[in-house]
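Q: Could you fold this chain for me?
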Amino acid sequence: MTGNKKKIRFEVKENETIDQCLERMKKSGYIPVGRFEKPIFKEIDTGGIKTYQPVGRTIIFEGKKSD
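A: Sure. Below is the predicted structure, expressed as structure tokens.
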């Protein structure tokens, strides 16, 4: 029977670099096994017509407990 290792997501914070996030994962005992990016949109209302414009992104790493 194999052990089920729980995965945790680590989001790169606003004033944090990717390397700093990866170091935070390492200090918590996790290694990255996946990377996800989610776009951030801003709603713009122009004369009653709503459009969405990309204004940024959120980077999330999925980590699993290191052995």
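A (continued): The longest strand covers residues 30-46.
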